[in-house]
Each structure stands twice: as structure tokens, then as C-alpha cells.
Amino acid sequence: MRALLADRGTPAGIRLGTVADPDPAPSEALVRTVALSLNFGETELLADSADGAVPGWEAAGIVERQAADGSGPAAGTPVVLVTAGGGSWAELVAVPTAGVLAEVPAGADLGAMSTVPVAAASALRALHRTGPLLGRRILVTGATGGVGRYAVQLARLGGAHVLASTGSPDVHGESLVRLGAHEVVAGPGAFEGEVHGVLDTVGGSQLVAAFDRLAAHGVLVSVGHASGEPDRFPQGALIGIPGRHDRSIVTFFLGDESGIGPDLAWLVRQVATGVLDPQISWRGSWESAAEALVALRERRLHGKAVLEVR
User: Fold this and answer.
1) Cα within 13 Å of Cα(49), Cβ side
2) For position 242, which CATH number holds?
3) What are the residues facing 222 on neighbouring strands?
4) Where is the Enoyl reductase (ER) domain (predicted)?
5) Domain enclosing residue 301, as ranges
6) For the whole model, what pTM was predicted?
7) 109-126: per-residue pLDDT in tens?
8) Number of domains in the chain
9) Is there a contact between 188 and 213 (Cβ–Cβ < 8 Å)?
């Protein structure tokens, strides 16, 4: 079968090649992919991938063969899938039917569906960690990224007052407001008052500044570290004082989340019915994967990139 393979000898770190078809375990379905969605974290991991390895965390496609044990969707069913260990950037993917696979509504755009498993599921699960949303102030850093754009929409849907942080509010402010942001700010220090929760995808100095804006009992969920900066807290930043106590920083890794199948199923329905906008900013054949990967790595691509397997 064809697949996108890690290749450190190419400018993008990737090439289209061939590998053996997967051999599914009895509890795995064989899925023929239709669309793949790219994530910033995948571009960072390419440099550490062995040449010839098949990267990729998510895909949407059609079940080619139902799991031998009879579990999961039947052949011909459209699905989305997440593969925490990589391997989704291929024509065929063997995926466990328990917890990481969800059916897609008939007739839905599989390109849009492919953006759900990592970005939307990460945003949803991370927002759960912040606690109740209704009537609370929630800050989303890196709001123009794939996870950030879904987080803004989901936080607004949950009844939060949403602050969307971006390095270019003059460029991206209007689009973030359309997604549901009540305020668009230039960083965690660029607004008045405190917040009850933070979904941080940037790390470094922004994580430190965002933690400083947390109200008592607030929770900051660290989902990504796009800045690459170290997280250096000043002396006294973690000392509890009246009105500023019991604040938490929670780390997050989607690959260790269990039972996300129902969340995936709910999310794809929201995208399919237009409640959530996948914010696709680049879409094309996987033969042009290098172009999309370089644009994503250089931060020239905001939102989601979708590769069509054809």
C-alpha cells in the first residue's frame, strides 16, 4: 500500500512511498483512509522518526474489513480514528475497535471529519479538566491553532465567557469572534481581571503569565508547547495567598485518555451538523503533503490542514 513515510533526507521530512499492508489483530478493524488531518505536534516528531516509519495520529475513512471478533462497525461504515502510536498516514490502517474509533454520519465530509480525533477531542477533554464552564471565564492561548479554534467554540457552547489569545489579534480577531470568542487578546497579560480556567497550547512565558491570571480554585490545562520555550516561574509564583490559592496546573496527553469513542461520536455529529466549524485552512492531495507540513511548521498555516488520500 502507499503511505507517507518519514524521510529526514527531504526538506519536509516526509515522502510518499510504499509499505506492506497492515495485519489486523482480531479486535482491530481495517480502515481504508480517505482523509488525514495534520497537527503541529506531528511535524515536530518527524525529526525524531526513523526513516521509513509511517507517522500520523488520526484519519477518516471507510471500514474495509470488520474486526475478526465481530466488534466495531461493519464493512462499508464511514469512521474516524485516532492512533496515538502513529501509523495513520497510510492507505490502510488497522485500529482497535474499542475506544479510538467512531462512526461518522452518512454523507458527512470525511475531510472535515478527519480534523476531529486529535484537535477537537483534545479541546473537549482539556476543557473538562477546567471544571464547569457555564458562567465562568475561560482563556484559550494559541487560539488560532487547530486545538485552539475548537476550544473557543466548545467553551462558548458550554456557556463560558471566552477569551481567545493570539499573537496577531488585528489579523485573527474577527474570525475568532465569529467562532465564539467574547474577547480577543494579544496575550495572557493583555486583559483585565482573572479567569477560572485556561487551556494552554503555547507553553513557556505564556503558560507562566496565564497561570498568574488564575482566580482561586482555577485550573490551567497544558495541552501543547508550541513555543518551545522553558516554563520559568518567578520566585513566589506558586505561593498561595488569600484569593489566589488552590490553583492547579494539569498536564494533558490525549494518547493516555481512555474511552474517547463516545466523545468522538458526539464531536463528529457537531461538525456534521454545522454546530462546530473545523476551520480547514489548507486542503489538497496527500501528494502535496510536504507543502502543508512546511507551512504548518513555519506557522504560516492557521487552523487545520487536510490531506486527501487519492
Assistant:
1) 25
2) 3.40.50.720
3) 200, 251
4) 9-307
5) 2-115+278-308
6) 0.94
7) 999 999 999 999 999 999
8) 2
9) yes
